[in-house]
From TrEMBL:
This is Alpha/beta hydrolase. GO terms for molecular function: hydrolase activity. Belongs to the AB hydrolase superfamily. It comes from the Bacteria. SUPFAM superfamilies: alpha/beta-Hydrolases. The keyword Hydrolase applies. Pfam families: Abhydrolase_1. It comes from Aquabacterium lacunae. Keywords: Hydrolase.
Length: 271
């Protein structure tokens, strides 16, 4: 696939200049616009790359096919394709939510592309697996959520967005997230949702070949603290930072803290 085709397919945006390249990847139901409170600050002294996974945001949805995107590896290939199209190596990858695991899969497949991973609100498994793993949800809860998504997309989005975002004093953020959930092709969104919420990437964590910063939010209903600690403990080389930020989207609700933690890591641990 040509460079131009990849950059158009994934609606790639490049900004800033610097010796280090940061690649930002959005979470489920979102797009690169969700990084708008964080990316411009980092672009002051870094090269910043943003993109949309196929089927999300302003990507070319016609490039989506059920075979490639039957697993998270297809989305990891999107990330790899973007890095190859831009000739990138040794990037710092910043992935929110499911993109944390997508980044892990990409780094396992092509370790030369990545210097570090930053996982914002990661979860390797959303469903509880007692007695040793608490992911935050029972399988029946997930089935109920996805059933609601398939029968009443708007109602599902308006219910889930405030749970994800928290920060009830910032209703506009919850509304933006709900709108984003409903913006894409519902059939693609439903398949992606099943991949995300029924996925299990616990076995992949020990194989991640690069250092990782785990950014764990407070009062996160989607990825509770036990999950962040599990991810941290099972990565070969990781740093865990407990954020003051509440909810699951600190880059939107608490961008300044997100920027400060990222900059501290880039200036110290990532060297």
């Amino acid at each position: 696939m040509s460079t131009t085709t990849v950059l158009e397919r994934n609606h790639v945006t490049v900004m800033g200049e610097g010796a280090q390249t940061l690649v930002f990847a959005h979470g489920f139901g979102c797009d690169q616009q969700m990084w708008r409170f964080v990316a411009p600050d980092l672009a002051r002294d870094h090269r910043v790359v943003l993109f949309d996974y196929v089927g999300c945001g302003r990507s070319d949805a016609s490039a989506w096919n059920p075979q490639r995107y039957a697993s998270l590896n297809g989305y990891a290939q999107d990330l790899i394709d973007v890095c190859d199209a831009l000739g990138l190596q040794q990037v710092v990858f910043v992935g929110h939510s499911v993109s944390s695991m997508i980044g892990a899969l990409a780094a396992i497949a092509r370790p030369e592309l990545f210097a570090h991973l930053v996982m914002v609100g990661p979860s390797a498994r959303y469903i509880n697996d007692p007695p040793h793993y608490h992911g935050g949800f029972e399988a029946a809860d997930i089935e109920g959520l996805l059933g609601m998504m398939e029968s009443n997309m708007i109602g599902w989005a308006n219910y889930l967005a405030p749970v994800v975002m928290q920060n009830t004093d910032r209703q506009e953020l919850s509304q933006e997230l709900a709108n984003s959930f409903c913006a894409g092709d519902p059939a693609i969104g439903q398949r992606f949702a099943r991949l995300v919420f029924f996925g299990d990437n616990r076995a992949d964590l020990p194989h991640v070949p690069v250092p990782v910063l785990v950014m764990q939010c407070s009062d996160d209903a989607i990825a509770p603290e036990s999950v962040g600690h599990y991810v941290h403990q099972h990565l070969p080389r990781s740093t865990l930072v407990q954020l003051q930020a509440t909810g699951h989207c600190p880059h939107m609700s608490h961008p300044q803290e997100t920027i400060e933690v990222l900059r501290h890591y880039l200036q110290t641990d990532s060297r």
